[in-house]
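Submission sheet (multi-component)
Chains listed below:
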Amino acid sequence: MIRKEDIGCIKLCDLIDDYPFTVSFFEDNGIETGTAMNMTLKEIFDSYSVDETEDMVLDFDRVCENLAEFINQMLSFLSEDEKIHSITIHPGRDKSGNPEGFSDLKISRGEVISIVGPTGSGKSRLLGDIEWVAQADTPTGRRVMVNGEVPDAKWRFSTSTKLVAQLSQNMNFVMDLTVYEFIKLHAESRMVEDAENVITRIIEQGNELAGEKFTPETAITSLSGGQSRALMIADTAILSRSPIILIDEIENAGIDRKKALALLLTEEKIVLMATHDPILALMGDKRIVIKNGGIAGIIETTDEERSILVELEKLDRKILSYRTALRSGEILSEIK
Amino acid sequence: MNLVTFSGPPSSGKTSVILKTIDSLKQRGLSVGVAKFDCLYTDDDVIYGKAGVPVKKGISGSLCPDHYFVSNIEEVLQWGLDNGFDVLISESAGLCNRCSPYIKEVRAVCVIDNLSGVNTPKKIGPMLKSADIVVITKGDIVSQAEREVFAARVNMVNPSAVIMNINGLTGQGCYELSTIIYMEDEKLETLLGKKLRFPMPSALCSYCLGETRIGQDYQMGNVRKIDMEDKK
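Outcome: structure written.
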């Protein structure tokens, strides 16, 4: 812990020695470090003219407060070894005020839960409740426990410890970077130590999932839909610290969905999957059925359903192989 | 009454976020009014009107929108009190990225969007750096990685703020926002005696007074020049 009262009297070079991550703080806040290494923040601010202070758009007190807050956040982030094993949802009520149709639902790492229900039935609210770790303080009255206990407020408010990472169909890459640069940027923001290795692994895994290969030098904006989703999933699985991954439909084309789920599970994520697709819905260990804003029931995938899934997957492969054949100009013949 | 100031770059989603947040406040039986400040044009008053939200519109025209804001906010607050609102929301666009329409001890929310680029947080002044709550919108259309990088960059320039990702279209996150912007025991009667969090962009030069001619001879008052000498 560092106190804001002390921070102004420490030389920049000492601050940076002790907390190397403050370099980016100074940079992003427009504080020139190059020539001022032997000065304290107080001395630096004292040396500014009135005009310069106004140009900084920050005053000394605010900078000290922010820097102390930032260092303390980073220290707790870096020392964190607290693991999330499970989340538990305690029932609330649906839109009409009726109690929900389940008793406590515990979801553990490595589990896949599908969420089914018509559009507008309340899937987003459920995910919202989880992300906000609701404590009977949202319209549904649900409570969400982390590791069986009432969770710390940091799960709500801290940017570095978000419970839920989200992957959805209409997401795009908007940055103008290559695959390598992009993952590097993400790795830096996550303070990953072994960045090069992590980057290589993500690109490998992304290529495993994508039908068509891409290289580290490919611009992310020129990736195909399937490649983008593959890279997003690999990146989220490996780099995101959020223990829960929420998937809002994964389209079939250009990506191996089974492998994608397997990757998320080897990274010990809790996977929640909102879907209308029967194959995805049955891939879950359980499925949550949502009606009228509430959870109407929780169904465990039955053995019969698992055998139906095998049939569905055969069909799916058949459609895919026809697709591939048509794309490469072949004439179709019955596949047995 | 509670006063909450919202600001953010144009088209970042302020109005959508505010409208969805008002829905949540109304569901709890609270009455809400909005004061919309803009520079040249806004039809947001129509949008608020349609949603049944009482609205006061102010167009700054040829004046600096921030200066206009601070010259009018006390009167707007009194309008809110006269109307018996529980919550008054002021919405203003941060037109020059240097804007700072925040008042000490009055909750300040800055709305910015994921599409504006990862370097944007360090380009925005007090509007972002001194906000209590930073709402990041348009997360539904960018990748998880970009959302995380963007939020980390915002956290870097304003570590003390609560940072929330909100979807202005579906309203996901607005209920949560509504719970942290309204304080039941807060009874604001006047802003007299309160202070801005940071000085506003200042200028008082010949061009402020209507000068249109270009050239050193016509520049008077608070004028600043680019340093054209190359640093050795």
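Remark: Chain B touches chain A through 46 residues (CB under 8 Å).
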